[in-house]
Amino acid sequence: MLQSLRVWNFALLEEVAVEFGAGLNILTGETGAGKSILIDALGAILGQRISSDAIRSGCDALRVEAVFSCEGDAALAALLAEQEIEYEDELIILRKVARTGKGSILVNGSHVTLTFLKKLAPHLVDIHGQNENLALLREDAQRSLLEGGDEELQKLLADYAEVYEGWREKMRLREERAEEIENIGERLDLLRWQEKEIAEAELSAGEDEELEAEIRRLSHSERLVENAGEASNLLSEDGEEGISVLSALSRITGALDEIARYDDGLSNAQTMIEEAYISLQEASYEVRDYLDGIDADPARLDRIQTRMDVLDHLKKKYGGTIPAVLDRLSSVRRELESVDSFDMDMAQLDKDIAALYKQLKAMARALTQRRQKVGTALSEDIVRELQGLGMEKARFHIVVTPEEKYTSRGADSLSMLFSANVGEEEKPLEKIASGGELSRIALAVKAIVAARDTGGTSMVFDEIDTGIGGRTAQMVAERIAFVAHYKQVLCITHLPQIACMADEHLYIAKSVKGDTTVTQVTPLSDEERVREIARMASGDDVTEAALANAREMLAVAQKKKAAFQKKKKAAKK
């Protein structure tokens, strides 16, 4: 609910502070006094673009401040939480527009963008201007109107939405897989080649090190034979160059054995020499075996070198070491397995999608049927209200048409068709040119749903009374008053029938202050209301008869409002 509005330097509004009450707030005044300027100032708070031309002459900037009470609006609280704006059931919005083009917007002291302000607006005020498209013209608002008062329809919609999300997710996954398969052709060829190349090499860990050692041996076989032969000869054969090591040790051992017969002073040396003889004898066998095992086969060297070239190529290509190459082989095989599973995954996805689609189709059909039933009943109610608003020949139909395309809301389109006069074709509501008709349709709708649409959003009717009078004016007044029993309404009017229904009556007047013109907003006392209604009914020449008529109109209005209040209490029971 809008609690207050303060305006500085906005067109004719130099400094104006207005307090609003719950129920019906009526704004009246002479033509050109600035009633619509006040609504424009409120529009600035709701995110409407404001030109620097709106700044009062001689001033550098304009400011508008509004205070709202917003208790229990979970959606609004969530929206504010996203921007980390502190919120305790009261919202203060301040907007400044400078002549330089710069401006600022504060919500509870936090800077916000114009875009965010527009997001807040639907939670705060719904302005219905004479020449503006009403919220009712939007398909989302039409659907909300149709679905908001029917619990069965809401349950069907919630169940459908759950299945729809599951279906869309499966469709998304399938599209991703299909795209992957389409783009994987070249990748698949590469993977298969790499797998073949590595697998055919039949690598084993440490093979390269073993081959390198063998290459060194085969490449130097002649030197190995020469040196091993020399070592073997020196160990075990007496030759031209003298006695062998083992022969010498054998002679030494014999000499020491003779000494030991008479003296054990060399027993330790004797033991050491014996151990050395045994060790050298074993070494000689090993050298001999090594010499016998030396392979000087050039063909073997060529084969090994060729194998080593293969290993070096793979190592250079896939990571530098044989373990890295083997890891790459494992990775390639895993990826190939994943690709091979695509067909199986796609088949399962197609099965899941088909099952969900069948379920979705049935639920969408049920949604359409329920919407058609609810739409028929709501259409009849709206027609009755329009007839009560002076549109006796009006026709109104909510048409729900099944469609092939499935959306998050079902598989049907919604349109509202209207004809005001006999012989005129029913046309979509959004194509109606008459602002007065649109306003009355909106009022009819609000009168129907007011009892269930009890949120904190305020309604503003800007000169809804254009083009009506007499009995129709009275019926419009009664329905505005009825709506105001459920939510706050601000209404600019020229009709005394509507003004009589006010819970708060604000008078807007224009006056000359020095060399400038200013607009002032004043709450009227009971007696001032009588005089204002008399002026509205009979003109500036207010007679006693006019005042008496005004008092009678106010008394009748009070009875009507009391009846509405009684009806509201009965509905709660």
What does this structure look like?
By secondary structure, this protein is of the alpha/beta class. The chain has a domain at 187-340. It is 56% helix and 18% strand. It has helices spanning 35-45, 74-82, 114-120, 139-147, 151-183, 185-201, 207-219, 221-236, 245-260, 267-293, 298-318, 322-340, 342-388, 435-449, 470-484, 496-499, 526-538, 544-572, and strands spanning 2-10, 13-19, 24-29, 61-69, 90-98, 103-107, 110-111, 125-129, 395-407, 410-419, 427-428, 458-462, 489-492, 504-513, 516-523. The strands form three sheets. It has a six-stranded antiparallel β-sheet with strand order 2-1-4-5-6-7, with helices on one face. A six-stranded mixed β-sheet has the order 8-12-13-3-14-15, sandwiched between helices. The longest helix is centred in the middle third of the chain and has 47 residues, at 342-388. The radius of gyration is 49 Å and the shape is elongated. The protein starts with a strand and ends with a helix.
Give the proportion of residues in helices: 55-70%
Can you tell me the residue ranges where pLDDT is under 50 for at least 5 consecutive residues?
none
Radius of gyration: 49 Å
The overall pLDDT average reads 83
What is the overall shape?
elongated
Measured between the Cα atoms of the first and last residue, the distance is: 25 Å
* Coarse structural class: alpha/beta
Annotation, overall tally of beta strands: 15
> Per DSSP, what share of the residues sits in E-state strands of 2 or more residues?
15-25%
How many individual helices? 18
Main β sheet profile: 6 strands, antiparallel
Question: Strand order across the biggest sheet?
Answer: 2-1-4-5-6-7
